[in-house]
Amino acid sequence: MRANSSPFSSLPRQQVNKGFTLIEVLIAFIILTVGLLGTVALQTNAKQASYDANQRSAALALANDIMERIRANDTADIVANYSKSFDYQDVLVEKKCLNIRCSSSDIAEYDVYQWQKALRVADNTGSLANGTVCISPTADDDGVRLRVVVAWQGRQRLTESTNETIACGNITNRRTVVLDSYIFMRAA
């Protein structure tokens, strides 16, 4: 009689381990599946973040463009010429100001026309969905405080973390870029 008696001691070694390799393979498959699903989720989030960054950089480039156009046309009529709100659906009113003499208000109309075209192109390329622009210049003693707000539709809902309410556009999932500047008026 053996000192170590168990019900499996008389069975051959192969029968004791039968099915153990299959369990190992199933566990490895589950771990691999979870890892692949995590990689797919990470890739999806990275793609969405890239899309949001592309929209934000397009909005910032457009806002900087109009800000520089306004700085170049810094006459006393900035408030009257540039106090506007428009979006990508507004009808374009063509204004030509190349190779002809234009007043500051003509230049302002030309600037806004060019910017509306750029906003429409950005919307058609998908880089700035449903864009809206609000330009609000406010005159004071030495110059003009200028605020340019670009709003567009993002892919997912976010809450704005600012204490200040920005009223520009009323689209769902709104994103905004706000540029504030000050333009000193040159002497006439």
Automatic annotation (TrEMBL):
Keyword line: Membrane, Transmembrane, Transmembrane helix
Superkingdom per UniProt: Bacteria
Membrane-crossing ranges are 20-42
The segment(s) forming the Type IV pilin Tt1218-like domain are 41-113
Task: Kindly give the Pfam families that the UniProt entry links to this protein.
Answer: N_methyl (PF07963), Tt1218-like (PF22150)
Asked whether the keyword Transcription regulation is assigned, the reply is no
Write down what this protein is called: Type IV pilus modification protein PilV
